[in-house]
Amino acid sequence: MPAQAKTPDTTEEKSTAVKAAITEATEEDQPITVEFEGETYTVEVSRLSSIDFFESMQDNNFALMIRAMLGPAQWKLFKSRHTDINALSGFSDAFGKQAGTGNS
After folding, report:
1. pTM above the 0.85 mark?
2. What are the distances in angstroms from CA 80 to CA 11, 33, 67, 73?
3. How far is CA 67 from CA 19, 55, 74, 78, in A?
4. How many domains does the chain have?
5. Domain assignment present for 2
6. Which stretch of 2-6, 28-32, 69-73 has the lowest confidence by average pLDDT?
7. pLDDT in tens, 11-37
8. 62: domain range?
9. Which residues contact 49 (CB under 8 A, 6 or more apart)?
């Protein structure tokens, strides 16, 4: 039975995990469906190569990263449902797990 992957704890670890998941997702060129706290979000792979997304990754800014990933309509929904900053980290983790497992 394979060992369970360690959940990243620091911002840098989370950023590295998300970058790895993005690399895998872009190779598959399929939208990534992320289930997070009862809501389904769809991340188009093209959003993962935008300048806004790249800048947010360089700055380790999870709010801007998720905003760039989701686009205006889904970002508005996300903010209406999640008002705590912990949701940013939680969504990032959910995205990493979903993209990293190749499930879309």
Report:
1. no
2. 24, 19, 13, 11
3. 16, 12, 8, 9
4. 1
5. no
6. 2-6
7. 666 666 666 666 666 666 678 899 999
8. 11-100
9. 26
